[in-house]
Amino acid sequence: MPLTDLCPPQHQSLFAQRWNTWSAAVGMEAAAQVESLLADRAKAMSVARGFVGSDFFVQQCTRQPDLLPALLAEGDCGLVAPALDELESEEQLERALRRLRNRVNAEVIWRDFAGQWDIPAACARLTGLAEVCIQAALDWHWQSLVARHGQPRNREGVAQPMIVLGMGKLGARELNLSSDIDLIFAYPEPGQSDGQSPLENQAFFQRLGQRLIKSLDATTADGFVFRVDMRLRPYGDSGPLVSHYAALEDYYQTQGREWERYAMIKARPVAMSGEGAAEAAEELMELLRPFTYRRYIDFSVIEALREMKTLIQRQVRARGMTDNIKLGRGGIREVEFIAQAFQLIRGGREPDLRVRNILKVLPLLEAGGHLPEGCAAQLREAYLLLRRVEHGLQAEKDQQTQTLPAEPARREQLAFALGYADWTALALELAEARAVIEREFDEVIAPPEESGEINPSEQWQMLWAGCARAEERDTWLEQLHEGGFQPASKALEILAELHGDRIVAALPASGRQRLDQTMPLLLAAASEVSEPLLALARVMPLLRSILRRSAYLVLIIENPPVLAQLLRLCSASPWIAEQLARHPILLDEMLDQRRLLQPSTAKDIADDLRQHMLRVDPEDLEAQMEALRHFKQGQSLRTAAQEITGALPLMKVSDSLTWLAEAILQQSLALAWQQVTEKHGAPANTSAEEMRFAIVAYGKLGGLELGHGSDLDIVFVHDAEAQQYTDGERPIDNLSFYTRLAQRLIHILQTRTLSGPLYEVDTRLRPSGNSGLLVTSLAAFEKYQRESAWTWEHQALVRTRPVAGSERLGAAFEALRTDLLCSQRDEQKLRDEVVEMRNKMRAQLDKSNDREFDLKHGRGGIVDIEFMVQYAALAWAHSAPSIVRYTDNIRILESLTEAGLMPAHQAEHLIDAYKAYRSEGHRLALQQLPGVVSGDHFEAERKTVEKTWQQILG
């Protein structure tokens, strides 16, 4: 009988077309060989089903002429890993993996359609394929990295292996034809590799992970191996790609969520490389066990599972998933939910339930009395049918789909491939199976009894739902008025505008549902702050910016303290509100309220930044620049929150912002050094630790008085031989090297990425200003200061200090600064020049008038105090060097008192006035207002400053 006649009439044309395509590709001899094997009707029918049911199968048979004969002749073609020692390049590795994957997938399709393998056997082969491919890619890249950077070791010298955890279907050995593979990468302990080009372990394993992913996930001419999903790792996409065990343990103990416990049920090591890997893998699983399985019967998880169930049902309705056999009602995910719900609840007390494979869990649940008698067998059969249909759907185009086809012709193809008489027969079995699953799913987590109590937020829910209805306007105005929103009409206008916005109308159902949950909570929380309307208005831009990223709405819904703090901070500062609206990722900073309001030391900030940067690919400059900006924004937000809540006094606010700038300068300089040295090599006798280059801070940074949004006044110095050359393949003279280093640093700081610039940088205070060299030798700096500098440049020197780069050169600069400031000067000439410069500045910059006082430049303001301090330092340091030990105005004033050069009461009055002005300036900066106040403010302080000015400089 011709093969075509084995197909129903409606499939004969499709089969003939695909058969002819294959025959033409493999040649008449190969085609005749296959036909000779098809005398067996069962084999012939298998070919017919394979060619009708899977275009992917036909393509693989066409590309590999030996494939179909092998399938017909053998019961199992086997699974052989690529011989790594025969592969000469990464490209050959990737080609070998992809060809192996395509051949195995084709065999699985064939055996399934032929009825030779059941679903457990097919899944086992696909899982084995994933394990072989992951291990082969891991071993290849491990060998490559170890050859270049050495073996990663902990601080005691013990070798550190890489462990790859398989999650989901891979972990449970249930992988299907087109599954993603969910992975988590881990290694035991920090340290560094022991080669000639060592890497920190974090960087080593991150590179290893990135290369492993590329070898599996990238699409080439041969296709891909597996799509790799890393989102189940701690912190998801925003977390480090690889974590050491202590970091994993800390995350799961302090921040792990119920859905992560749900996912961890199926976790298992699927690949590993390095000495001691097997023992390390066992240690990792033991570490994770207490998080997944609690020591008691964990009924607390029921509510979380109930929410997951509700979410499943809402997604089905919202997305019209009735034909989705995985996500729809009575689908594969509901069977998984039934099993894993009991595992989470009872697995802590019943170790037998701690198995990953669902077909093994179901009979255990029935034996333990958790499922009715006979239920396990029914669920098993229903599940196997759905998984087989899923395979049939994915076999057609090698695509990840679980949706039943809408086209009648495609439905009949699927039914024929799976061995059914027609679609009606398959659809009937599917309906019966899904009904079984749906019934048991609804029984597992019964909905809670409806509460008769009125939810406290019900009125706010009703207001949000009806705020756009004109006929209920008076009711809503009264409620808003009683909630403290003044004027209520403005609040209602804001709400109605958002409610009717096109962006809200365009939200998917899940996003709209989360917004509808958020708004009543937001209104209730806003009614508790001092200015509800102000808080509501300021939080609106943030709310609009996260509408399409509804995970942030979930963060707000699930964390009432975050919402309350958010509204307090936005109410207090439009600057904070604006930062959050521009960068919603900063909301993550508010999750840990203790950390948000806990002041950090300079060491804390520097250490946090180092840890933050370890998560970033060291070879990806753009990612590094974004990471620096994210860190700065997060730390700035914390500092502002601490200032607003009173957790941090004014002086400590400036300290915190200054320490942040110093840490970022040091990290940015390290990045700039790495980039310039990679291109040009380094000057003689230098290293990343001893660059013979230093950054000197002037102004607010030099005086430890940075505010929110301050620029950085910096000058660059070096002490290398300017005419010597670097040691790289493209050498340049040392002066050019340090100039490029400074330019690269400024680029890193000032470039406007998606997150904006890090800092605006001003280098005009260098010798000769903009007309001078960008980088100056220390000797040239000294010569300029002694022979050419203006008095105002010596004044600026009072507030200078090294902040990054070579510690040795920084110490030399500090010694030079002290020597310059302690030079004896003509006091009358100095006084005249200081007063003249002050008068010029006031004429150009003072914004004061009859009604307003300029805090900085007004008479009796900040600059007057600074000029008096600078004059005192220059005039008297020759006899009392201790007065220039510090660079900040307050400690210099205190030093003047200690040296007997200024009465204590006079210094105290100046310090009090200076603090008052700066505190108000900070408050205005957070309000995004200019530093100008009403003319009747600070009258006493101004009089005191003016009186002291007359005594010292009058």
From TrEMBL:
Residues of the Glutamate-ammonia ligase adenylyltransferase repeated domain: 54-275, 564-815
Stated name of the protein: Bifunctional glutamine synthetase adenylyltransferase/adenylyl-removing enzyme
Lineage: Bacteria, Pseudomonadati, Pseudomonadota, Gammaproteobacteria, Cellvibrionales
Protein purpose: Involved in the regulation of glutamine synthetase GlnA, a key enzyme in the process to assimilate ammonia. When cellular nitrogen levels are high, the C-terminal adenylyl transferase (AT) inactivates GlnA by covalent transfer of an adenylyl group from ATP to specific tyrosine residue of GlnA, thus reducing its activity. Conversely, when nitrogen levels are low, the N-terminal adenylyl removase (AR) activates GlnA by removing the adenylyl group by phosphorolysis, increasing its activity.
ATP-binding among keywords: yes
HAMAP family: GlnE
GO molecular function annotations of the record: [glutamate-ammonia-ligase] adenylyltransferase activity; [glutamine synthetase]-adenylyl-L-tyrosine phosphorylase activity; ligase activity
Gene3D superfamilies: 1.20.120.1510, Beta Polymerase, domain 2 (3.30.460.10), Nucleotidyltransferases domain 2 (1.20.120.330)
